[in-house]
Fold this sequence. Notes:
alpha/beta, Alkaline Phosphatase, subunit A, six-stranded mixed beta sheet, 48% helix, 16% strand, globular
Amino acid sequence: MTRFRKWTARRSTACYLTSTCRVLDGLETADRIKTKRPDLPVIMITKSEEETLMDDALGAKISDYLTKPVNPTQILVALKKVIDKSAIEQRIATRDYLVEFREITMKLNENPGWREWADIHARLSWWDIELDSLPDGGLKQSLEGQRTECNVEFGKFIEKNYEDWLWRQKERPPLSVDVVERFVAPRLKAGEKVLYLVMDCMRYDQWMAIEPLLYDSVRITRDFHYSILPTATPYSRNALFSGLFPSEIEKEIPGLWQSADEDEGSSNRFERQLLDLQLARLGITVEPEPRYAKILDPEEAASTAKKVSQFFDRKLVSMVFNFVDMLGHGRSHSDILREMLPHEAGYRSVIKAWFEHSSLRQILQSFAKQGWTVIVTSDHGSIRGQKGAKVVSDREASSSLRYKYGRNLRVDKRQAIVVPQPENFKLPKRGMNTGYIVAKENYYFVYPTNYNKYLSLYKDSFQHGGVSLEEMILPVAVLEGKGN
């Protein structure tokens, strides 16, 4: 009797608080459970197969959904999926990656060509993203070790073949100079309206991380190109717009390379004119005149998104977005950003979070809705510097960490590609007896003076200009509205 009184007292209190004594249905019960315990998994069993009920159940963030009649095996499987979800995902990932690991190792032993290297990089990038969500650090360490091994072999491959790609008509991958001719020009000739977007310093894996955020609104076809050397903005981005190698650009715009190559404002101030010259060489006339926009900060991006309709009366628009590069550079000077971007996974995560709410995403979706074809690519990627390479030079050498030009440059040839004759790599001469060196793998250049100080200062910073999969093999994504 006492227990009955306690039950009726509790029930009366509940009725008083809720102003009703009605029985809650399953969805209401699930909603209240999730309100009080968001972390608690909920499995719903119902006799209804109505689609609206299933949608409502999924909207209540239940973990699984079973329709009556159910047998014990179904319940066991549902419970196992919920309780052992992380362990199951880990086991499957481990099994699948071990298979992938062996396949990539076999490819390395088969002297891969440029197509195979692009495939290897795409596979590694996919696993980078896949393992980001798993707790086991052992697989990530294995993947990082395999990337290092691949970059050692990739450096040898580039050193052996790059000059042939430039001079000897040997079959070559699409390079920076080929992107407009191969991906943009055919669309213009077919009468399509094209947005040509270059995201400064965006890596292949970073694009793969943000690409799914566009799946609802566009169809995406992903391809790739190789950045020219050095993989730095003044060289690779000018090549993207001009279709010319740096030594050829020098003939078009004398004096361009006289300023410091780290100064993007001076070395990349002719991108619009270089694109116009390339289109003329390709026999393409675009009327009305193409529009060009370089977006350097969030305020400018927001302003562009608001007035994006002003671009729609053109047939070609080219844009440069600098956020990814700015984030990498900012990390070097900010303790907060270093905490947020401790490694590549953190870098991907921050870029994805930015893109999800960015003006750039709005811009891409707006163009796609208007029936435009959007070509997205990058001028170069970046790599996290891990090992110092001692370099000796005269006082006039450039200050870049992953490449340098100057006189009397000396470095261990196992750590860098040495280019004593710039014309061999179609690079500007920059004066008498000036050569170039380009770092391999994840080396960065440090002078002997105060070596340990600067070795420590730049270790783990994101750098570009050298030879690595991350810097050289870049995405070219073609976006088309689903209504096209």
